[in-house]
Every structure is written in structure tokens, then in C-alpha cells.
Amino acid sequence: MYKIATLYKPFFILFLLLIIGINSSIFAQVKISFKNNVLLLENSVFQRKINLDSNGKLTTISYKLLKDNEEFIQNNKNFNKKDSDKFTVSTSDEFSFLLNDKKHTGLSGWDYNSHKYIKDGIKLFLKSKTSNFNIAITYLVYPNLPMVRKKIEIFNTYNKELKIESLDVERLKIAGGGVGTASWIMNDYGRQKHLGQFIGNCYDPVVVVHNHKERKGIFLGNEAPGVMKRTSVFLQQSLLTVGLTHIEQNFGFRKWIKPNTSWESTWVFSGIYNNTDDPSKILNTSVNDYVRKHLGARIFQVKEMPTFVYNTWAPFKHNINEKMMYSLIDAAAECGVQEFIIDDGWQDSYGDWGVNKEKFPNGLKPIFDYIKSKGMKPGVWISLCSAETKSEVYKNHPEWTVKKANGDDINLHTDKEQLYGWESKSMCLTTGWRDYIKNVILKMVNEYGLEYIKGDFAAVTGAYTSDKTRSGCHAKNHNHKDRNESMLEMYQGTWQLFDELHEAAPNLFIDCTFETMGALHLIDLAMCKHADGNWLSNFVDTAPLGSLKVRKLAWSRTPTIPAASMVIGNQGLDDPNFMFSMKSLAGALPIVLGDPRNLTSEKRKEIKEMASWLKEMQNSHNFMTYRQDLPGFGEPQDGFWDGFQRINTATKSGGIIGVFKQKSFQKEMWVTVNYLDPKATYKVTLAPNKKKVFKGIGEELHTKGFKVKFKEHFQGELYEVQKEK
Question: What's the pTM value of the predicted model, to 2 decimals?
Fold first, then answer.
């Protein structure tokens, strides 16, 4: 009998688990429960408790790391004056918003309605004690990450519209934090230091509040799009907030909720860490892991990530034609280009997006076919929201245009109504224009075989305008009530366009430029969830200055932003020092411009060898999915060395390293590598000739590394780190 019981014991346990409905997250050490009015969020590394007390006050009462039981939030009963310089809490009010100009927070009084367990988390439904509306707060927890993702939904049970403004989705009040004199506020993608009170902007998808004395901190993530982000630190003593812009700001958020409907906010997240003097460590680990595994970034869904892309914009601008294209395609193919993008100048007008028959008498189909015959993917530039006043679509659909306060049409892109000498207006993506431009693009996909679009120019506000009121839409007949409501709706209309394009054309790579995002060099987590890449700059400088700018911009936005989504232009293939730029570009998504016809056959061969090496590295290590800081190498700047590593932290197979000397008098540096298997043997080789540089175990690479000697004033090299089988 004992033997039979032992034999069937595993099956019996499995049967019990199925019967009682154990969630699979249990096996990943995630625990979520709501009992006795306390919400518990826990995994293997942290625990957060949120209490709904007898007065209906909702507040976080504990947020701690489990390994050493370090508490980041303590209630008043446990507060000790000796701990006043540590992270402690008096009262966290959990969230805040204005509803018809009246402020509501977690302390305003709430009755419990119900709760619902969902994938990775829980949804808590509450009813206001003082007003006739309900809310639902969603909390998500992921295995092994010390963070909570959060959003709020507001239900209108009134018989009139509700106006929502100044929304903070997350509010954590850290008593003892004061106004931040003991903390660095790492802003601008978590890369720049700030001291004291702080209000974040569009460049703050992640802010890190690092207590340098206590060697710990809190990271705050904001998934709101573009200029709608707001993260604040210490505006009130010890208070941290994450959410949407407040109504008094240039791009103040507003949402009108109709009776018997609801509205969901954008996501935010917060997390905790300790035992480090380096706040960038959390960017390279927990934040980077979250973005890669759980954000839902589009780039990680691309089956074949591009590693070498060519674009025609510089030096040709609009001066392109059919004959030129064929010669450029031949030269680009000889350089090992994988994707060939035809930029502005192919169309008959902004808006109608027909092919200019004077420049391309046979249309684009034969050219696209020729691109494919050379083993490359074809793409085009298109403005997502621009229509020239001469275009038929502008004349036939005046109801789609973005409006000024006085009802006139407007060009959001710049302070002028003209672009490149012709008058153009902006079209609103909350109208029928969205379906129109989607069908324009899908027609090119279906008829020409289009595989890449560079979607450009302003959709909500302009990167080149000095007038901040030149944003949003005042139209009365669009899918928004007023200008303040329009801005978030216009961003979300852009995301809907991208999502519908991806659904209809799964292999289409969508490049959403910083101009569409609405600010110079702007990319954020919201965009990454809907577009594959972002044309991030127009650096026209030749190497070594252009190369430095590429590496500096890539460093500044990563590892918060996926490096493979960063399309950094405009380095030229025909620059005499292009190889320095090509190696620099390997830290992001390598995009090149210039005139490849000017290159000798030897130079084309040299570039192709490096392009082939990059493709091989992608096939071997999937390095485009990863990027981390190179230990001991900081922000790229003149007079120093800098570098990056793109190590596959999942397989530990290795990856690539970039090391650069930028006008430094120091002739040699030791290079160490993180995130390898400490016991496995690795080989380091130089690109693209694979000359051996180092061989040893991962622990030795991590603690000692290998020496790099550069003789030139400006020099850069790429290396492969490969695990031996």
C-alpha cells in the first residue's frame, strides 16, 4: 500500500493543485492576496502592503526588501527620530486626482467593493464615500523583480460628465526624506544628478531617488507618452509621485468621462533596491529586465532585428529619382546593408501620398522588387499627420485638420505654416484621418511589399516649435472635448495606428521619429510598446565628433530604453572615418546615410565585413536585445575612454563589447565584463577578423578582464565575447 501511495503521490498533488486553482505565479514565488483589508504584494525579493483602514483610508504601510528585511516605508508608530535621515514614511496617500476641480486621494474615504485576481496581479474595486463614482486600482508583480506596476480606472456613475485632471497614479510619502538633501535624484533617463525638489518631464520615463548615505533608493517609472509624463520628488516633504501632467503645466492632462463609462490611466511602476553606491546599477538590472521581459516592447517581438540599415535623406534630401535609386541600391548592397529606406521626396504631395511620376515614372514597385533581389528589405519615409493644402485629402476633409483656438488650421511641426517651401497643415489622429493614413501605408505593404516605414513629423506637438501652446487640438467635432483632453488622445491615436498596422502587417517595422514624439531626441517606454524603433537624431557631424554624439546619445537613453529601438542618424557611409562611426553605431540600431557610390570597392568590402560580423553576432548571441554599461567606463566625452557591452544575460552565451578612446592621453585601459557565467570559459576576439584577445573563465573576465591599447588619438574597436562549448 505504501509503495502505491508513493508512486501516485506526484499525480495526487497535481490533481489537488488543479482542483483548488493554484495560480501559476505561486511557482514563480509571487504571492498576491487581499485579506482583512490588507493587500499583500510579494515575490522572492520584496514585499509591499497596502491597507484600507476602518475610516476608508487607503495607504501603503510597508515596502521592504526581504533578504535583509530592510523597510523603505514605516508607519508613524514605528518612526524613530534616530532614523530621520533614512527612508521612512508618515502618510502615503497612494494616488491623487482632481475630479471636477475637487481633490481626491487614497485618504479621501473609500468603501471596499470587491477584488479580482488577474494575470500577474490584482484589481481592487473601491467606491467613494463622498461622491458618486468608483475606482479600480490594478497592481502587478513580476517574479524576482523588486517593483510594482500600477494603474487606476475611474468609473462615472453620475448622470453628468466627470472632468479628471492632475492625476498621480502613484504617491509614496517618505518621512525623513525632507526636501532631498540626502538624496541624488537621477533624472533624464536616470543619467543626470539633481539635488532638491524636482518635477520630471518628457525625458523622464525612469527617475531614481538614491540615498547615497544609506546606499539604497527607489526607482520611479512612468509609461505615459511623450510630453504627458510627470514625475515629482520632494515637492512636499518626502513625497514621490508618478503620473500624468498637472493642469497648470504646458501640456496639462485632462479627461472627460461620460456617464456610465470608465477610463483607465497609463501605467506607472515603482521599485526599491539597496547595498549599492551606484544608482545606475538598478537601470542595468531590474529596470532593464522589466523593460525586456514585461513591458511589451515591440522591438523584442521583431523576428529578425535589423543590424545595418541605409536611409537616403542625407545628402540627397528631396532630390531623389528612379535612376539614382538603382545605383544607390547596388552600392548599398555591396556594403552589406540589410534594409534600404527611401526618405522624403518620393511622393507627389504630403497627404495624398501618391508616387511622384516625374521622379519615378514606373512607380515604386520595380524599385522595391530590385531592393529585395539584392537581399535587402524596402522601406519609405512618410509623414503620419501632414497634408499639404494643395492635396486632395486636405481639400476634401477639412473636418480632419488640427485646429487652433480660433478655429483655424495649424501646422504643429514648427512655428511656421510652411515645410520645405510649401504650405502644410497637421491632421488629427483622433479622426477619420487615422484610418486614411493606415490604408495608405497598408496599400504600399500589399502592392509594393513595403517592410519598413519611417513615420515622421509632429502628431501632438512639435520638436521645433518655441510656442508650447502650439500643441493639441481645439476642434469641437473630433474625438476629444477640448485641447487639454486632445493631447493624450492624439498620442493614443498614434499608438492605435501602429497597433492596427502591426496587426494587419506583422512584419512591418515601424520607426516613430522623435519629431512625432514631440521633442528633440525623445523616446520613451510608451512609444516602445507600439513602435519598433525611433529615429532619434539628425547628427550631421562627421567622425570623430559625429561618432561621439552617437555614443553619447545611446549611453544617455540606455539601459532604460531598448538600444535596438534607437535609430541614431545621420552618420555617412562616405565619411573617410566612417568605420569609427560604424563601431559607435553598434551600441544602438546601426543606421547609415551618405552616398555609398563614392566608396571604393575596397572600402565597400571593409564595411561589408563589419556588417556581416554584426549579423553573425546577432545570430549567435541576439545581442540587439541587450545593452549594459561597461564597468569602469562612463559617459562618452572628449578626453576620456568610453564603452558599452551587449551581453545576453539570459543564455550567458556572450555578446559584443565596444571600447572607444576619444581624445584621451591615456593609451591603455583594462576592460572587465559583467553578467557572464562565472565558471564557464569565454574567448574574447577582435572584430571582424576574430583575432584572439583573451581566454578565461567568466569570473576572471569580471574581476580582472583584459587590457586594450590604442595608439590613435581617436580609436574604437568591437569585440566578441563567446562562451566555449
Answer: 0.94
